[in-house]
Design goal:
Blueprint (H helix, E strand, L loop, with lengths): L2 H26 L3 H13 L10 E3 L5 H7 L16 E3 L4 H13 L3 E5 L16 E5 L6 E4 L4 E5 L4 H11 L3 E2 L10 H6 L7 H4 L6 E7 L5 E2 L1 H4 L1 H6 L10 E8 L1 E2 L4 E8 L3 H13 L4 E11 L9 E11 L3 H11 L11 E3 L1 H8 L20 E9 L5 H14 L3 E6 L22 E9 L4 H17 L29 H11 L29
Parallel strand pairs: 2-4, 3-4
Antiparallel strand pairs: 1-2, 5-6, 6-10, 7-11, 8-9, 8-10, 12-14, 12-15, 13-14, 13-17, 16-18, 17-18
Helix pairs in contact: 2-4, 10-13
Bound molecules: flavin-adenine dinucleotide and 2-acetamido-2-deoxy-beta-D-glucopyranose (6 copies).
Length: 531
């Protein structure tokens, strides 16, 4: 061996030995962050729970599986992604209270995670020394079919909520998101919409009470927290104000029979153009979502050329005969026939919209084990119909970019009549539809991420003339750190994203009373002082 090579060889083994010794010692050394936090939890503990069993440090063998169980975007699951110093998994509201007090006393930043669906991972990533408050064990659901209410804890998923509702009633439902793995805590505190939005509005339009833990560690309900905080946690994002422990929901009536369809069209510019006008005022029982995607052109399957395909997906709260007569009057060009329609119960439509096979058991809604992709999402609101010329350019742009897709979600219906200040969620009357920009990929390399994020940003920029302006609105639950990043906890930038997410309601989201020391903060939280 040459001297240099043998020296490197020696260095390599020397390092291995050092690594071995240090991992050996650290595994047994008393980690002061962990032991102080544990002692604090014990001091705070009002229950008989052995709090050692709800606190995980990096040395704990379960730390990794608990961390990754609710990571739904692989962009935030690299070995280099900042990891929490501790994870705490409360079983009771008093554990949540202790977690808040101990994080504050130990000077650790608390990040709250329920379903972990945040598109930018801000519920489980941070640049500083942080603790994850993982709510997944606080997930009780109690449905009262007589009172037509449900008590649901923040760690429950929407799938679990829908499952418990159909267990108790065939004529009750709840208007929330279509993806069953989404967590109640983030979803509802950020607004929450699904395919009953035109009939029943948002999830936050149906909340009658809540339990939260505030920055002082107090467990409060609607009466004791006061109406300002209760208003803020219905669309203002829970993580700026308090930990949401549970919501009490008022359920909505659903008919015994609903109808769905899914039809695909090419060369669909005229149909999309017409759809914009139809959905504003058509029967509130109808919701129609469009997927615009570049796919292999069926006319040139061998040539590898792409064409933009538009998928029309509908939920109608009624039978297929009524739906067909509604469509014949309002949208005959779409050419939907009874043969395209499927009649089913509302609960079965939940499975249909979540892409489960017909006849899958409702128990699939209870599954919590999903595989994740790398992804990036963005949002926009459209207030003026896009012209046919504009739509043609858009269809071509999607083919040119050859990757990102768009989802158009119809508004109108009751969204046009609920006053803007009812909840922090401001995008109501005056909006024809919301756009979600979407790209997902499987290649873990940085190049794939840069390419996909670049494409979606280009598409977003292309859409500028067609969407809301001054400010350009965005949906909080479609978290996008491209708008107004705030990593210094100073608030000039805070206003940029705050105005986009909340428009005029931003001024009503007052934090200084409930959290004057800005304990509840994240990359896009509401600032204490607005400039
Ligand atoms: C596959 C998929 C489908 C989706 N479909 C829809 C849809 O149909 N409709 C729709 O409106 N949205 C949809 N979304 C967006 C979704 O509503 C948001 O990502 C939502 O914030 C997720 O909530 P979570 O609890 O799962 O997320 P988390 O990542 O746990 O939390 C999101 C944010 O809320 C905060 N938070 C979480 N729990 C609490 C709590 N208990 N108290 C206070 N703050 C809390 C977090 O700190 C973070 O800031 C979808 C997202 C995905 C990934
Ligand atoms: C726990 O309580 C004891 C006794 O009151 C106190 O001395 C100690 O500082 C507390 N420790 C922590 C970490 O809160
Ligand atoms: C609490 O749990 C830990 C870890 O499981 C265990 O080592 C400890 O003995 C338990 N303490 C009590 C008082 O039961
Ligand atoms: C809210 O909390 C107060 C004080 O603990 C209690 O008296 C009241 O009954 C609670 N309200 C509800 C609806 O539970
Ligand atoms: C789209 O329209 C063009 C021009 O009318 C036609 O040639 C083509 O076959 C259509 N494509 C599809 C997939 O319908
Ligand atoms: C989750 O699914 C993966 C892949 O299908 C499987 O390997 C794993 O064992 C499952 N985990 C649990 C807890 O069911
Ligand atoms: C953070 O904000 C403070 C106060 O405005 C400012 O002085 C400081 O330069 C900022 N730091 C960074 C890294 O932006």
């Amino acid at each position: 061996m040459k001297p240099l090579a043998s020296f490197l060889f020696f260095l390599f083994f020397f390092n291995l030995i050092i690594v071995f010794i240090s991992s050996f010692t650290s595994a047994y050394a008393d980690d002061p962050v962990y032991s102080n936090f544990l002692q604090c939890l014990k001091n705070q503990s009002k229950s008989s729970t052995n709090v050692s069993n709800i606190l995980y440090s990096r040395e704990n063998t379960q730390y990794n599986s608990i961390l990754t169980a609710y990571i739904r975007n692989l962009r935030f699951s690299y070995p280099t992604t900042p990891k929490p110093v501790l994870i705490i998994t409360p079983l009771t509201p008093s554990h949540v209270s202790a977690a808040v007090i101990c994080s504050r006393d130990q000077g650790l930043h608390l990040k709250i995670r329920s379903g972990g669906h945040d598109y930018e991972g801000i519920s489980y990533v941070s640049d500083d020394a942080f603790v994850i408050l993982d709510m997944s064990n606080l997930r009780a659901i109690r449905v009262d079919p007589v009172a037509e209410t449900a008590y649901v804890e923040a760690g429950a998923t929407l799938g679990e909520l829908y499952y418990r509702i159909q267990e108790k009633s065939a004529v009750l439902g709840f208007p929330a998101g279509v993806c069953p793995s989404v967590g109640v805590g983030g979803h509802i505190s950020g607004g929450g919409y699904g395919n009953m939005i035109r009939k029943h509005g948002l999830s936050v339009d149906h909340i009658t009470d809540a339990v939260v833990v505030d920055a002082q560690g107090r467990v409060l309900n609607r009466t004791t927290m006061g109406e300002d905080l209760f208003w803020a946690i219905r669309g203002g994002g829970g993580a700026s104000f308090a930990v949401v422990v549970s919501y009490t929901l008022s359920l909505v009536p659903v008919p015994k029979k609903v109808t769905v369809f899914n039809v695909k069209r090419f060369n669909a510019t005229d149909l999309v153009y017409k759809w914009q006008f139809v959905m504003k005022d058509v029967d509130h029982n109808l919701f129609m979502r469009l997927l615009l995607q570049p796919v292999t052109n069926p006319d040139q399957p061998k040539g590898g050329k792409l064409a933009t395909r538009v998928t029309f997906i509908a939920l109608f709260l009624g039978d297929s005969d009524t739906l067909i007569s509604v469509l014949n009057a309002a949208f005959p060009e779409l050419g939907v026939t009874k043969a395209d329609c499927l009649e089913m119960t509302w609960a079965q439509s939940v499975l249909y919209w979540a892409n489960f096979n017909q006849g899958a058991p409702f128990e699939v809604l209870l599954n919590r084990n999903y595989t994740a992709d790398y992804l990036k999402r963005k949002s926009d609101y459209v207030q003026e119909p896009i012209s046919k010329v504009g739509l043609t350019l858009l269809m071509n742009k999607l083919v040119q970019l050859a990757k990102p897709g768009l989802v158009f979600n119809s508004y109108g219906g009751v969204m046009s009549t609920i006053p803007t200040a009812t909840t922090p969620f401001p995008h109501r009357a005056g909006n024809l539809f919301k756009i979600q920009y979407s790209t997902s990929w499987k290649d873990p390399g940085q190049e794939a991420a840069d390419k996909n994020i670049g494409l979606i940003r280009e598409l977003h920029s292309f859409m500028t003339p067609y969407v809301s302006k001054n400010p350009r609105g965005a949906y909080l639950n479609y978290r996008d750190l491209d708008i107004g990043v705030n990593r210094n906890w100073t608030y000039v930038e805070g206003e940029v994203h705050g105005r986009k997410y909340f428009l005029g309601n931003f001024d009503k989201l007052v934090k200084s009373v409930v959290d004057p020391h800005n304990f509840f903060r994240n990359e896009q939280s509401i600032p204490v002082l607005k400039s």
